[in-house]
Specification:
The chain is of the alpha/beta class. The protein has helices spanning 22-33, 67-77, 98-115, 151-170, 192-201, 220-231, 251-261, 288-294, 302-318; strands at 13-17, 37-42, 58-61, 81-84, 123-127, 174-179, 182-183, 206-207, 214-215, 218-219, 240-243, 249-250, 268-269, 282-283. The protein has two domains: 13-180 and 219-243, NAD(P)-binding Rossmann-like Domain (Rossmann fold), CATH 3.40.50; 183-215 and 249-281 and 300-325, UDP-galactose 4-epimerase, domain 1. Helix content is 36%, strand content 15%. The longest helix is centred in the middle third of the chain and has 20 residues, at 151-170.
């Protein structure tokens, strides 16, 4: 099997799972721009965030837990590169959906890798999560022991280990990327930045915790760029790599910056809410490995990214389409 990474994506057959999701939809658009021939596996016929590019991609409807169907799709597409972003995401620490998490995230990944067994692919990007680090000390480094604290993060840590085993035992060309907190267009309002923007657009006052906890915030197009660079890097094969800018910001400062850019349309009540139980006070990465192996570095500053994001949500409000990204009541 010839598994040498190509130097560009023009004309390359690419398979993407989770391509209609938040990060996935931005990655698909970038792949199209790079000239790749993109096939996206969707769980349903809903193309979600792929509005405007549906006619430039091929779509296949299948659940990753259906091994036979996934195998047929892989044989037909015969991808050179695979970007695996599909996952059942659960941000809480309850065990209510643990069976679905295990089936979707662990078995779904195994089915995809098994389906690729006889394919001549040169790179498989496994999407991990920064939550694999759990309650380790920040900044998080790739050589830190995984310490997941939820069923979701444990499932992603498991797939990371399986992917590492596939690489070591079978020489499969696999890279695991751990994207850190990401924001931008097409993100649902269950996350801090879109929730703040959408509430402000609707004239709702903002209530936060004391906001002293720090996080890093990555513009989604920078994260997509990290995926592209990893798929073209021979040095990345077999590695686990953080994708994040490594700059920490206080939550309260980010909320204040959003409202300032928007002209402070609503009141902000800092400290109105308590910290969550087990709240991590510092959560950001060491990105030196990505810089060294991939030549990757973030290009979008926080203020620039926030402006772009705000403008996008404003445009959706004007078109009366904003409800599509509102899964949380305001």
């Amino acid at each position: 099997m010839d598994r040498r990474c190509e130097m560009d994506l023009d004309g390359t057959d690419v398979l993407v799972t989770g391509g209609n999701g938040f990060i996935g939809s931005h990655l698909v658009r970038r792949l199209i721009a790079e000239g790749a021939k993109v096939t996206v596996i969707l769980q349903t016929k809903d193309t979600g965030n792929l509005e405007g590019v549906e006619d430039r991609i091929r779509t296949k409807v299948a659940d990753l837990t259906n091994a036979a169907k996934i195998s047929k799709i892989v044989q037909k597409v015969n991808p050179q590169k695979v970007f695996h972003l599909a996952a059942y995401v659960s941000v809480d620490r309850t065990f209510e959906n643990i069976s679905k998490i295990i089936q979707s995230n662990i078995m779904g990944t195994m089915n995809l890798l098994q389906a690729l067994d006889k394919s001549d692919y040169d790179c498989f990007i496994n999407t991990g999560t920064c939550e694999e680090y759990g309650d380790n000390m920040a900044p998080f480094k790739e050589d830190q022991q995984m310490n997941p604290v939820s069923p979701y993060s444990a499932s992603k840590a498991s797939t990371t280990l399986f992917c590492r085993m596939y690489n070591k035992v079978l020489s499969c060309p696999i890279v695991t990327l751990r994207p850190f907190l990401t924001y931008g267009p097409y993100q649902k309002n269950s996350m801090l930045i879109p929730n703040t923007i959408i509430n402000a657009l609707h004239g709702k006052e903002i209530h936060t915790t004391p906001g002293e906890q720090t996080r890093e915030f990555n513009y989604v197009e920078d994260i997509a760029d990290g995926f592209i660079k990893a798929s073209l890097s021979k040095k990345a094969i077999g590695e686990i790599i953080n994708i994040g800018n490594g700059k920490e910001y206080k939550i309260k400062d980010v909320v204040q910056r959003i409202l300032a850019i928007m002209g402070n349309p609503v009141k902000l009540h800092i400290g109105a809410l308590p910290y969550r139980e087990g709240e991590a006070m510092h959560f950001y990465c060491d990105n030196r490995k990505a810089r060294k192996l991939l030549g990757w570095a973030p290009k979008t500053g926080l203020d620039e990214g926030l402006r772009k994001t705000i403008e996008w949500y404003e445009s959706k409000l004007k078109k009366k389409e904003l409800h599509r990204w509102m899964i949380k009541k305001i």
